[in-house]
Amino acid sequence: MAKKHEVLIADDHRLVREGICKLLDFFDNYHVVGEAEDGLEAVSKVRDKFPDLVLLDLNMPRMNGIDAIHKIKEISPKIKVIILTIHDDEEYVYRVTSAGAEGFIQKDLTSGELREALDEVMNGGTVFPRTLEPESEEDEQSDTTDYRELLSDREYEVLTLLARGMSNRRIAEELYISEKTVKNHVSNLLRKLDVNDRTQAVITALKKGLVTLS
Asked: A GO molecular-function term, please (predicted)?
């Protein structure tokens, strides 16, 4: 018999945790090894249980889901993380994926959809909303702007590193340039992509197929 994937469930609502536990009981290749009611407890139990997968709520007391992702990935990058939430805002999706999570799914999905999402992630894939997928050919044809041509090679490098969740300091170290120069490149990116902040710059780049989250 194949080894079951061990799962930790973290959500500040007991009813949600119990519901997911009962649902996973019907999945023959998943086994719940622990529960947590906040992000801090989730990180502690990850250290103790070392599960294969963590199902994590986004908004929890003491430590939110995004901070918990960072801590979990510090413990082991091999541990898979899926955010299970009521939110569908593009900025949340970007922040979660750039933090290192493999999935972002909503709580109103069906049991079959949950099973598919878990299997996809455990097989090495990722699951996140279509809002961050590259636009279709039809959408691209309606927008004649060549966004890649707008950017210099250095600006494109900075944009790629932004999509990986790097700070200005990290980007400066990666590219061997000053932090002030990075800030100038970011300002140019915002202007050329016609957005107000770096998160929206990355979201636009993802939609236009300029960068990926992998």
From this structure: DNA binding
